[in-house]
Each structure stands twice: as C-alpha cells, then as structure tokens.
C-alpha cells in the first residue's frame, strides 16, 4: 500500500514513478478493484489508472520504460510486472471457469437472479468472488436478469419433485470410443437485435461435433425435443445411446424421456447446479454465445 507521504509527494510533482504505476495496476488486477476506486485512493484520474492497466496488458516487458541501466529498484519493479502478467493469465483462466458456474445459475433460475444473488449462490458453493467481478463476467456473456413480480420467490428450471429420478451415466467421463455412444445437450440464451432466442445443441462426444440443434423463443422441453428429432434423423443412433444433460426441467420431463425411449436412448443427467457434470456442452454453448454478441 502506498504511504501518505508518497501520495503527497507524487501529487506535488504531478509525475508518477514506475513503482507507483505498477502498484496502482496491482490494486486493480490482484485486489479486483475498479480504476475509479483505485484512482480515488491514490489521487489520480481513473482514466490514467485504466491507461496504466492497458499498457501493462499490451506488453508487460515494455510497460513504463525508463532510461539507462536497470538498477536494483528497477529490477524489483520489472519482476513485479512479470508477476502481474502471470496473475492476469491466471485471472483469465479463473474467469473462464467462473463463467460456466454463472451460466449454470443463470439458466437454472430462469434468468431471474441478478448479480447480488448469483454472487451469494457462488459463495454458498464455496466460490469466493466479488460482485464487481461477477457483474463484469455477466456482461461479457450477455446475461441479464429478468424482473419478476414475486421478489425472492423465483421459479426454477430444476427438476420437478414429481419427475422420476434419472441417473448420471457419464460421471464426467467425456470420452467415447465410437460414434453415437454418448450425446450431450444444453440450452443457452442468445441475445439478438430485437430481444433474445434460445439455442439447444446436441454434441456427439466421439467427434465433438453438433449432431442436432434447434432455436426457439421459449426455453422448454419442446425445444430440446426439436433438437433431438433433428439429431436422430441425421445420425440414426444405435440402441443404447446415452443422452446426457443437466437436471433442468426441460430434460427431466416425462415428455422428453418418452421421446428418448422411442429412439432406444438412455437418459443421463448431472448433479444439480454443477456445471462440470455437463462441461462439454456448457463450454460449446459458451463459445456460441460469445460469438453471437
């Protein structure tokens, strides 16, 4: 943390040392604070803090260049910049994993949870993160909460209590030694110019290719069945093909189960709220959703 004496001296000179800039960037990237918050604390304009963050992100090895030979203090700053770059890369990987969890919560609550409630859900699951971070990831995914008249009593897409239990036949083993052994499916929200649509896809784990898909205005069982019918017509699955998904009501309904039985397929679902139990389908739709923005 910068001392008050350092801040006073810097305000007087109106110039900023490399150490000062790197520390400001560290406060943004490592402490997960906004440039506005950091700028207010250290006494500089938020736009300047954002510029420093961008400089370090564009080329960490050349950010905040100085003159002459590198001194011991300069070496310390250089190493800190390198550490910040490693932190930024780790942060990117963490955000990608966090995005899967946020999408799962958003979908299973019928898009009714805003940033505060999603943050609370994550914390209850043992995932500690700030609201600002969740909000940024939600915006990058194009996820927005839909207002409901009943506050804090929101309808969920989790399996209904009267639906028959469905086993997890995949158990995170996302491999297949032949075509049509295991299909995985998921549904996502896609923003479009005049609102949004829902996309349901089915992938074959052997080839990781889409074998069936459907787009509709509603996130329901009919959408999943439409994608399934297309997949069955194009691939003609063999008896015993596993159809794996999450535990959303769209997939645990008797209507879809009947359609699977008609095609000789075995239903399989992951655990409630665990995005990694359907990670392949989730990851594919995350890419599709980002590409549609």
Describe the global form: elongated
How is the CATH topology of the domain at 182-292 named? Nucleotidyltransferase, domain 5
Q: How large, in whole angstroms, is the Cα Rg? A: 24 Å
By DSSP (H or I, 4+ residues per run), the number of helices equals 11
N-to-C series of helices and strands: HHHHHHHEEEHEHHEH
How confident overall, as mean pLDDT?
A: 76
* Biggest β-sheet description: 5 strands, mixed
N-to-C span: 39 Å
Proportion of residues in extended strands = 5-15%
Which parts are unreliable, with pLDDT below 50 for 5 consecutive residues or more?
8-13, 148-156, 273-280
Number of strands: 5
Provide the structure class.
Answer: alpha/beta
Strand numbers in spatial order across the main sheet: 3-2-1-4-5
CATH superfamily of the domain at 182-292: Ribonuclease H-like superfamily/Ribonuclease H
The proportion of residues forming helix, as a percent range, comes to 40-55%
The first-level CATH class name of the domain at 182-292? Alpha Beta
Describe this structure in words.
By secondary structure, the chain is an alpha/beta fold. Among the domains are: 64 residues; 111 residues, Ribonuclease H-like superfamily/Ribonuclease H (Nucleotidyltransferase, domain 5, 2-Layer Sandwich). It contains eleven helices and five strands; from the N terminus they run H-H-H-H-H-H-H-E-E-E-H-E-H-H-E-H. A five-stranded mixed β-sheet has the order 3-2-1-4-5, sandwiched between helices. It starts with a helix and ends with a helix. The relative contact order is 0.10.
């Amino acid at each position: 943390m910068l001392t008050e004496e350092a801040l006073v001296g810097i305000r007087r000179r109106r110039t900023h040392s490399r150490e000062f800039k790197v520390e400001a960037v560290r406060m943004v990237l490592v402490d997960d604070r906004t440039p506005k918050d950091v700028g207010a604390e250290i006494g500089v304009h938020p736009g300047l803090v954002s510029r420093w963050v961008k400089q370090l992100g564009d080329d960490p090895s050349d950010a905040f260049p100085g003159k002459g030979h590198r001194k011991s203090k300069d070496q310390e700053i250089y190493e800190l910049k390198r550490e910040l770059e490693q932190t930024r890369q780790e942060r990117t990987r963490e955000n990608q994993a966090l995005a899967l969890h946020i999408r799962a919560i958003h979908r299973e609550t019928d898009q009714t949870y805003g940033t505060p409630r999603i943050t609370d859900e994550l914390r209850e699951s043992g995932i500690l993160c700030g609201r600002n971070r969740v909000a940024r990831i939600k915006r990058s995914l194009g996820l927005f909460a839909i207002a409901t008249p009943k506050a804090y009593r929101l309808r969920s897409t989790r399996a209904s209590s009267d639906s028959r239990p469905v086993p997890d036949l995949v158990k995170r083993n996302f491999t297949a030694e032949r075509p049509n052994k295991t299909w995985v499916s998921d549904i996502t929200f896609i923003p479009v110019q005049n609102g949004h649509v829902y996309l349901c896809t089915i992938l074959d784990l052997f080839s990781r290719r889409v074998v069936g898909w459907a787009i509709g205005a509603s996130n329901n069982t009919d959408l999943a069945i439409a994608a399934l019918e297309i997949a069955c017509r194009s691939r003609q699955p063999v008896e015993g093909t596993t159809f794996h998904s999450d535990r959303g009501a769209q997939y645990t309904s008797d209507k879809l189960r009947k359609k699977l039985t008609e095609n000789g397929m075995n239903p399989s679902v992951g655990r409630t709220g665990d995005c990694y139990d359907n990670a392949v389908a989730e990851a594919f739709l995350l890419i599709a959703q980002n590409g549609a923005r």
